Known about the structure:
Blueprint: E1 8-19, E2 22-34, E3 39-43, H1 50-57, E4 65-70, E5 73-74, E6 82-85, H2 89-92, H3 99-104, H4 114-127, H5 143-156, E7 161-165, H6 173-190, E8 193-197, H7 201-207, E9 210-214, E10 221-226, H8 242-260
Helix pairs in contact: 4-5, 7-8
Bound molecules: adenosine-5'-triphosphate (ATP).
Organism: Micromonospora saelicesensis
Pfam families: ABC_tran
Domain ABC transporter: 8-241
Amino acid sequence: MPDASPLLRVEHLRKVYASGRGEVEAIGDLSFTMMPGELLCVVGPSGCGKTTLLKCLAGLLRPTSGLVKMEGSPVTGPSPAMAVVFQEYGRSLYPWLTVRGNVELPLRHKKLSRAERNRRVADALDAVGLPQSARSHPWQLSGGMQQRVAIARAIAYRPEVLIMDEPFAAVDAQTRADLEDLVRDLHLNRGISTVFVTHDIDESVYLGQRVLVLSHSPTRVQEDLVIDLPRERDQLTTRALPRFTELRTHVYAQIQRAKRAPASAPHPAP
Ligand SMILES: Nc1ncnc2c1ncn2[C@@H]1O[C@H](COP(=O)(O)OP(=O)(O)OP(=O)(O)O)[C@@H](O)[C@H]1O
């Protein structure tokens, strides 16, 4: 019997920032669950609270009210069960460390033997297609390769949930397509549970098993859409499917609605 308990449960999450200009209610009332092994994409209008949500998920930000639960336990601080990959790969890697050193760094906080650390680093670099680059420094690599190193560092840590915040926004289109396929591959072949935030509607539909469309700020779930595309996807045939076009058109329309009004009953799924 597969495990039917959610891995991640977000219950009535609300986040209000206190700023010099008064209070900013970034997240209004947000609830959703994620099952183990899922790849969940999050999209929404610009400034709707996506990064705020991710920071609350990862325990980097304390919600004003509501709860994030990881395997049933409330997340109350930076969670060792989660690894985050940000857009700014340039700033997230240490230039004075080799690729190997960067990937190994967080493992030093785990009680692992040197042999196990070596094994995990080699395995992670293999998974992202960079087994030959272990001794290079980040600045010797292209932007796309640097982002692969950041992903390798996250998966070497073996998090319960991989959180990605617009990770491919700063790379060119071809590199982006390759990195999207890497995320699909990690999901299919390693069962890594992933929350992937993106501005790109096509990317959310191509990658996700589900797409969570957020309303404008103070954000709520505008729609929780199941992406019923084939499990095996590729950039050419999947994006050419009529169903792909239907789904991306639907998500686009939902975001347009989300920009105009607070969360309302979604249009029926296409
Ligand atoms: N530290 C802060 N103090 C005050 N307000 C903040 C703070 N961080 C974010 N906000 C506000 O909260 C709202 C949501 O911001 P957030 O960065 O989470 O949105 P986002 O969807 O990730 O944005 P983007 O689409 O630009 O990536 C915005 O109105 C933003 O101005």
